[in-house]
């Protein structure tokens, strides 16, 4: 144990690695040193003085949060002097604090409240009038009550260091020091709410949660965010079948505490006034509400008659529904409806990647790999907007481990701020980012100020920035309506050289070769042969490489793994005779089309199907044209599993019920019962279907205790080539930005209010 440091804390022998802080060393032997400004993972601040301890041979008390251990050090955390110091610190913190715990949102889970109970004095010696300033609203999501603030700067640091946004700072000095937005009186930021959650007191509060409830009145349910493909775990605070808040303060799951605005706040689509709560049947050309029994009877009868008559079916599944639902749906289609006409919207070319990796040493990366590996290469995607968790992980890897980050993208990205090298490729990404929200004009990307492919000016590989002066280039238009965060990037690592991704990769080859290992993250800029070429390129580097193929939605990856494609069965086995894909099913006069959680007729596409059945939460463009609409439960209203963009399986846990809606799996089961085929398909219980998945889908025989207790387990669904022709031409990512996530985002009041507030500025 030669490389460990020996010290004594409160008479107990402690051994920890060099450079460990005394506050952390104490934790290893169960000794708590109280702290406010110290926060694991953020830079040291030493602002609050709550962590003072006595150290033998040191003349004054020391802050344990900044003091590294030393051999033979003797620390005391419970002396009279230390106790007195804590009391005084708390007394100072309370001089202007309003003591409005009974109405404060943080009451019951406030660190200051807890500390005062534990370490504080029973009374204050201050009789002077307290300084009061009125509450401010920084954004639709973030409110600030200055008198409650204890100036620990956690919010400033999480925003700047964790998110890379830097929207908060401090103004004034002394007793009138105040946390404030860095631009005017409002936040130009990701609206992620991380600053609110990390605030130890009730100074920063959430526009969604404030004054709704007390923490002990809620049930706390851990489940998975239903928006993007990153698969963040979220803990939903629920009361009376309502979701009151989302956070992940227990740091469980693959995302630790991280949630973006969608995971933290955009659960509110579930109680949108337009949410469907009764089945609808087309009667005399009009959809009217009917009972579940009548709607299911109509569907069962039609499905049965069509199947018996040898009629044609099309089945369109979803990348939001669970693995169990997707597996059951394809089984229903193939075994009962006798069709391979089953598909979903494909958002990343997972199939070609899995095929290309078969039998080779390269593997699939996990979310944790993005934090641990020595180097990361981002290709195409604007991760901060489209995959916020992955962007957060890569940034944390850079901050904590000095990981080397490379970005080859059509437009500026947040990774430019700290990348070893960023290259702007000539291929325009304007269409994709312009479609971020679908409601605002997109920003032009695909060009730096000097334009794609233009000759470097100002030194080798340096692009000067005409807009922002000689030294800094805006990463994104500050506060633009498409959710772009503000921020600045040093330009010397940004080059605009090659016309395409492979030209850019070639120019990076030597740098990448010198890395000990690499994770490559790519979006739908790479599909088909380009994915194969990318894998070949990385093999030529001679270093271990892992991949992340980005997909858009909560279960996009699971939909592919579960065989929601005409050419592939669950586990990527060939289906035999491939059926029709989505566009063909819409274009053909099929007798019956069954749409589960998708909206293929958006954009004024007219239905051709003889009979159209839609399961959905809302009366989408597709549902409006249906013969039968069955109200479906959201991800927060069902049990099951989903697989994220890195192939990690996690558990969905039902948090609430919405009256009238049913989980898609249950609806499918009821249709099977109406048709008299329920026994053939088996029970429609998520745990039973998952057992079937475990037995039938390679890679899904996962350690259940890990998943059941809120962990994640990665799948490897292919071991060999995928022996069918893939359809990369069908892959199309929606490139949703921070404030959009397809249909769900459209029905989120929070996301819409943020968009509106930006448009009104
Ligand atoms: S980006 Fe997040 S942490 Fe920063 S100010 Fe906005 S809500 Fe707070
Ligand atoms: S607002 Fe909260 S997190 Fe920010 S400095 Fe004040 S107390 Fe700390
Ligand atoms: S939208 Fe994506 S990044 Fe945001 S909380 Fe949900 S899963 Fe995480
Ligand atoms: S926790 Fe050490 S000074 Fe604040």
From TrEMBL:
GO terms for molecular function: 2 iron, 2 sulfur cluster binding; 4 iron, 4 sulfur cluster binding; metal ion binding; NADH dehydrogenase (ubiquinone) activity; NADH dehydrogenase activity; quinone binding. GO terms for cellular component: membrane. GO terms for biological process: ATP synthesis coupled electron transport. Residues 218-274 form the 4Fe-4S Mo/W bis-MGD-type domain. Keywords: 2Fe-2S, 4Fe-4S, Iron, Iron-sulfur, Metal-binding, NAD, Quinone, Repeat, Translocase. Its cofactor is [2Fe-2S] cluster; [4Fe-4S] cluster. SMART domains: Molybdop_Fe4S4, NADH-G_4Fe-4S_3. Signal peptide: none annotated. Residues 3-81 form the 2Fe-2S ferredoxin-type domain. It catalyses: a quinone + NADH + 5 H(+)(in) = a quinol + NAD(+) + 4 H(+)(out). Residues 179-209 form the 4Fe-4S ferredoxin-type domain. Pfam families: Fer2_4 (PF13510), Fer4_Nqo3 (PF22117), Molybdop_Fe4S4 (PF04879), Molybdopterin (PF00384), NADH-G_4Fe-4S_3 (PF10588). Residues 81-120 form the 4Fe-4S His(Cys)3-ligated-type domain. CDD domains: fer2. InterPro entries: 2Fe-2S_ferredoxin-like_sf (IPR036010), 2Fe-2S_ferredoxin-type (IPR001041), 4Fe4S_Fe-S-bd (IPR017896), 4Fe4S_Fe_S_CS (IPR017900), Mopterin_OxRdtase (IPR006656), Mopterin_OxRdtase_4Fe-4S_dom (IPR006963), NADH_UbQ_OxRdtase_75kDa_su_CS (IPR000283), NADH_UbQ_OxRdtase_ferredoxin (IPR054351). Belongs to the complex I 75 kDa subunit family. This is NADH-quinone oxidoreductase, chain G. It comes from Solibacter usitatus (strain Ellin6076).
């Amino acid at each position: 144990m030669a490389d460990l440091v020996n010290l004594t804390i409160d008479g107990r022998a402690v051994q920890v690695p060099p450079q460990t802080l005394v506050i952390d060393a104490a934790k290893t032997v169960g000794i708590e040193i109280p702290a406010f400004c110290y926060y694991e993972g953020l830079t040291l601040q030493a602002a609050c003085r709550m962590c003072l301890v006595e150290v033998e041979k040191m003349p004054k008390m020391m802050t344990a949060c900044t003091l590294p251990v030393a051999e033979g050090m003797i620390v005391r955390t419970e002396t009279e002097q230390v106790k007195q110091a804590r009391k005084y610190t708390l007394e100072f913190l309370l001089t202007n604090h309003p003591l409005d715990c009974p109405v404060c949102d943080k009451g019951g889970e406030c660190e200051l409240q807890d500390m005062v109970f534990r370490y504080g004095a029973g009374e204050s010696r201050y009789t002077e009038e307290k300084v009061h300033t009125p509450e401010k609203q920084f954004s639709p999501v973030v409110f600030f009550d200055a008198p409650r603030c204890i100036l620990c700067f956690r919010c400033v640091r999480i925003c700047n260091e964790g998110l890379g946004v830097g929207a908060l700072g401090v103004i004034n000095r002394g007793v009138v020091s105040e946390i404030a937005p860095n631009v005017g009186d409002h936040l130009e930021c990701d609206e992620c709410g991380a600053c609110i959650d990390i605030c130890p007191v009730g100074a920063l509060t959430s526009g969604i949660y404030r004054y709704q409830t007390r923490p002990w009145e809620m049930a706390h349910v851990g489940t998975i965010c239903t928006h993007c493909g990153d698969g963040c775990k979220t803990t939903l605070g629920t009361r009376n079948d309502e979701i009151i808040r989302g956070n992940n303060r227990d740091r469980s799951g693959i995302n630790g505490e991280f949630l973006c605005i969608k995971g933290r706040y955009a659960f509110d689509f579930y109680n949108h006034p337009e949410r469907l709560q009764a089945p609808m049947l087309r009667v005399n050309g009009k959809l009217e509400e009917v009972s579940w029994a009548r709607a299911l009877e109509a569907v069962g009868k039609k499905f049965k008659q069509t199947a018996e008559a040898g009629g044609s079916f099309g089945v369109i599944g979803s990348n939001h529904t669970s693995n169990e639902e997707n597996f059951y749906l394809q089984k229903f289609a193939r075994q009962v409806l006798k069709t391979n006409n089953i598909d979903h919207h494909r958002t990343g070319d997972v199939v070609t990647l899995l095929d290309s990796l078969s039998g080779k040493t390269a593997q699939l990366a996990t979310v944790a790999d993005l934090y641990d590996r020595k180097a990361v290469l981002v290709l195409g995607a604007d991760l901060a907007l489209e995959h916020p968790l992955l962007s957060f992980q890569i940034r944390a890897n850079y901050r904590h481990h000095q990981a080397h980050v490379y970005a080859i993208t059509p437009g500026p990205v947040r990774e430019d701020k700290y990348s070893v090298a960023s290259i702007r490729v000539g291929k325009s990404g304007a269409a994709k980012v312009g479609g971020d929200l679908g409601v605002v004009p997109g920003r032009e990307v695909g060009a730096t100020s000097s334009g794609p492919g233009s000759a470097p000016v100002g030194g080798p590989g340096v692009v000067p920035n005409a807009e922002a002066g000689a030294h800094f280039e805006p990463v994104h238009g500050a506060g633009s309506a498409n959710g772009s965060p503000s921020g600045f990037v040093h330009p010397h690592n940004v080059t605009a050289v090659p016309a395409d991704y492979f030209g850019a990769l070639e120019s990076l080859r030597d740098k990448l070769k010198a890395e000990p290992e690499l994770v490559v993250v790519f979006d739908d800029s790479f599909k088909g042969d380009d994915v194969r070429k990318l894998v070949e390129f990385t093999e030529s580097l001679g270093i271990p490489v892992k991949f992340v193929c980005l997909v858009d939605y909560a279960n996009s990856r699971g939909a592919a793994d579960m065989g929601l494609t005409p050419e592939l069965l669950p586990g990527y086995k060939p289906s035999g005779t491939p059926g029709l894909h989505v566009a063909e099913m819409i274009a053909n006069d099929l007798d019956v089309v069954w749409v589960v959680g998708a909206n293929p007729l958006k954009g004024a596409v007219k239905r051709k199907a003889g009979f159209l059945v839609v399961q959905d939460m809302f009366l989408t463009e597709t549902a409006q044209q249906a013969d039968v609409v069955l109200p479906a439960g959201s991800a927060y209203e069902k049990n099951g599993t989903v697989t994220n963009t890195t192939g990690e399986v996690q558990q969905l846990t039902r948090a609430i019920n919405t009256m009238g809606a049913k989980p898609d799996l249950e609806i499918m089961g009821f249709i099977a019962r109406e048709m008299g085929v329920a026994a053939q398909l088996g029970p429609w219980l998520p745990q039973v279907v998952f057992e079937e998945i475990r037995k039938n889908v390679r890679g899904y025989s996962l350690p259940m205790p890990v998943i059941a207790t809120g962990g994640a387990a990665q799948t490897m669904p292919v071991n060999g080539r995928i022996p069918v022709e893939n359809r990369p031409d069908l892959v199309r990512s929606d490139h949703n930005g921070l404030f959009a996530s397809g249909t769900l985002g459209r029905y989120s009041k929070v996301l819409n209010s943020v968009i509106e507030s930006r448009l009104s500025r």
